[in-house]
Amino acid sequence: MSDSTTAPASPVVLEAWFDLQCPDCLQALDDVRALREKYGDRLDVQLRHFPLAKHKHAYAAAQAAEEAFEQGKGWPYAEALLARTAELGERGEPVLMEIASELDLDAEEFDTALIDGRHLLTVDADEAEGKAIKVTGTPTYVVDGERLDGGQSQDGLRERIEEITDRLLKG
Length: 171
Fold this sequence. Notes:
This protein is of the alpha+beta class. The protein has helices spanning 23-39, 58-70, 74-82, 85-91, 94-102, 107-116, 120-132, 157-170, and strands spanning 12-18, 43-49, 140-143, 146-149.
């Protein structure tokens, strides 16, 4: 028998639309970490891919992150990759494999995933959905259907996300 008053509430979903070669997304990680720390499992932060054309390796980076999620280390991979955005821009895709190795991901499977394109549809679907909801830059957040654009300025975004999350958690 289930008692709805004692059942755990569904977590609030925060979609974080990132380009994994974007320096602004690296700065946004501080907010993501703070939100995770504050809300724990009551906030489900979901990485959504929006690779920008101006970043040559962002599309491959998004595929690599999807493989890291498949292997159980998606957020650690994304965070490590964002910490090396400049290096990714300079050295390109070998950086993707180096990070996978550093995180003890299955390198052979990782390499195969990048070659066979098994995550292309996921990245393409994210990009198409982002365009449909009018994501134009990164980082952009969506919480409770509200789009918050951090591409111009990240000032006040975390506070706004907290306001929405607190309201949703209070029900």
